[in-house]
Design brief:
Elements (H helix, E strand, L loop, with lengths): L14 H27 L4 E8 L5 E7 L6 H14 L1 H27 L23 H37 L5 H28 L10 H22 L1 H14 L18
Antiparallel strand pairs: 1-2
Helix pairs in contact: 1-2, 1-3, 2-3, 2-4, 2-7, 3-4, 4-5, 5-6
């Protein structure tokens, strides 16, 4: 029997298993917390990176939604979970993220239908606009959140499951070697799926992109996709360094061979 095992909580098989579960909870917590934050921030503001103009006089505005800033960290978290805990756990965390999206929408909806102190139209019950023609802050955030979450839920499911699948595809092909291939290959492909879906859904469903009606829509949407993907691509390339460092130290701390394909049973020290 392992020293001190009789003092463990019954749910913990060993100190090693407890250590593995703590690390898993850290990555899952960062993933889910970041996801909730970016869904609230979402498309509430667009950040102008820079602006230029083509030789033909077409303005090029490189901008990203503020919700994009923390998003790449979610892919780094699922890569760590995939590397050490296997595809099933990574997919499970992605599924919990979907439930979290639904939870955010539910709370925002309940917060909007319950009576408050805002002035309402007696005939329709709708909240009255202020002197500037705007809704109260909560209702503006609520409207933007609904649009952002609807767009992100579709893109999120497609991109995150794509990320997990491609990660393990490259892990099998390279037989656990070439860590940078599966890290960058999975993230960069899934980020393209995510960026394209989010931009198109945000425009055609939520109508929340800062579009200039006097310029061609196709060019502007393409520019938003290229800008968002370029930002995510750069971050994905940069996160290879912390991924390598993390794998190097965690494989010894967790006593897990990252070159193997893992599932939930692989993490049981009794096997």
């Amino acid at each position: 029997m392992e020293p001190g095992a009789d003092k463990l909580h019954p749910i913990e098989a060993s100190h090693l298993q407890a250590r593995r579960e703590r690390v898993f909870l850290i990555f899952a917590g960062i993933f889910l917390g970041t996801l909730a934050m970016l869904n609230i921030l979402g498309i509430s503001r667009f950040i102008k990176l820079f602006e230029t103009e083509t030789s033909g006089g077409f303005p090029l505005v490189f901008a990203i939604a503020v919700g994009v800033l923390p998003y790449p960290i979610t892919f780094l978290c699922t890569d760590f979970i995939s590397e050490f805990y296997g595809r099933r756990r990574a997919n499970f965390v992605v599924f919990v993220g979907l439930l979290l999206n639904i939870w955010v929408v539910t709370i925002m909806w309940i917060g909007g239908v319950l009576p408050g102190f805002e002035a309402t139209d007696p005939a329709t019950g709708a909240v009255v606009l202020d002197a500037a023609g705007r809704l109260p802050v909560f209702f503006e955030i609520r409207a933007l959140t609904f649009g952002a979450v609807t767009a992100s839920m579709v893109a999120y499911m497609a991109a995150q499951f794509c990320d997990v699948w491609v990660f393990h595809f490259w892990k099998r092909v390279t037989k656990g070697r070439l860590l940078w291939v599966r890290n960058n290959g999975s993230t960069m492909i899934s980020q393209l799926v995510d960026t394209t879906a989010v931009i198109l859904i945000t425009h055609y469903y939520a109508h929340a992109l800062p579009i200039n009606p006097d310029l061609p829509i196709g060019r502007q949407l393409t520019l938003f996709i290229v800008t968002g993907y370029t930002f995510k691509f750069a971050v994905a390339a940069f996160d290879t360094i912390p991924f390598y460092i993390g794998v190097h130290y965690l494989k010894r701390y967790l006593q897990i061979d990252p070159t193997r394909e893992h599932d939930l049973r692989d993490n049981d020290p009794a096997e």
